[in-house]
Structures are given as C-alpha cells and as structure tokens.
Request: fold
Amino acid sequence: MPARSVAMGLVEVEGIARPDRVITSPISRTPCVYYRVEIEAAEKEKGGHLSFSRVGNDTCCEKFYVEDETGKILVDPKGADLDLNHTIRRETQPPARAREASETTSLSGIPSDEELNRYGDSVLASKRRSPLRKLAKRIWVGLFYSRGGVYRPTGAYRFTEYCMLAQERYVVAGTCAENPHPRDESDRNMIHLGRNNPIFLIRHGTEKRVESTLKFL
Reply:
C-alpha cells in the first residue's frame, strides 16, 4: 500500500530506505542502516590444524524511512527478519603476528587484524559466560586435546559481515503503530515488530520476495 495510506495493524510498503543517519560496519567500513557480524574463533588442534567455531555475533541498526512517490513512513528494524547484503568475510592472524603486521603496514580506511582481534575480544567480553560454563569449557578443552582434538583458541577470528544499505529499494511487512516521537503531522506512524503479530520482514527488491516468504508462515 502507499506509504501515506497505511493504517494501524499489519501493513506492507515498498520504497527507498532513507535514513537520517547511517552507521559504519566494523569489518568493511560500509555505511549502512543495519549490520550483522557473525564471529568465529580460530582454534588450534594438537596437530597444528586450524578450525573455526562460532562464538557469537554483533548487530547494530538505525531507524530509517521507507519512501515512495506518496510519502514516507518510519521503520524500526529491531527484531525484523532481514534480507542483508553479504559484504565481506575476513580472517585475522593471531595477536602476535597481527601486531607485527600492523607495525609495518597501513591500509587507509581498512581495519587491521590487530584492531579486528580487539573487536572480537570486546564482543565476546560483553557476552561473558558463567564461571561454571568456563570451568566446563576448560575441562572439555583438556580432554579433547589429550585425544588429538581441538586445543584452544588462538586469539584470531573469522568475521562474516552482512549489511542493509541505504538508498536502496526494500519491501517492509510488519505492524504499523503510533510513532512515539513524531516530527510533524506526516510522521505519526511507525512500522515495527508487533507484540501480537510476529510477522516482520524486510526484503531487498520487490514485493514478490515478501509474498513468497509469507506463504510459508
């Protein structure tokens, strides 16, 4: 439906994403309105082989407007099922080697391995495990290392980053409610994740992609 004609309840609109401000993704430094980074830790096996295990993720978003030829409506993307662009996958070196590399090279605008290792550490620190789970992990590591299994994290990571870009066309299907902070008379509505309706999709492209997803819900 046209942006200016939406009513309260479940709605679907299509238009260009127009944010008031953008955020910068941590891995590729891409300006965007939403990013998700999947984080895997590099673990060293007894024989020296490296493997990766998923240890967490990091997300950040900004509200944005979906604008069509009739007007625009605010969207709060928190909790949405999003169709994100895959921007980059990057593996870092262990801290000692990353530190040496950062001292000898400088790539403008691209975070160094040392910076990304610190970023990975900070994300994991914010998701601290209980002392009991840490003890269980230590016992598990010791047991499997003695049998030739995974030994321990190396301090290096693999990051897979996805972004939702501004100024591109999206279809939004979600719950329309009153905007708690309207700017003017034309800014009274907002699409978000409803309490009583779990459908909240944001898809890149046209409404056909949303329809093909909705028929399975």
Summary: DSSP finds four helices and 13 strands in the chain.
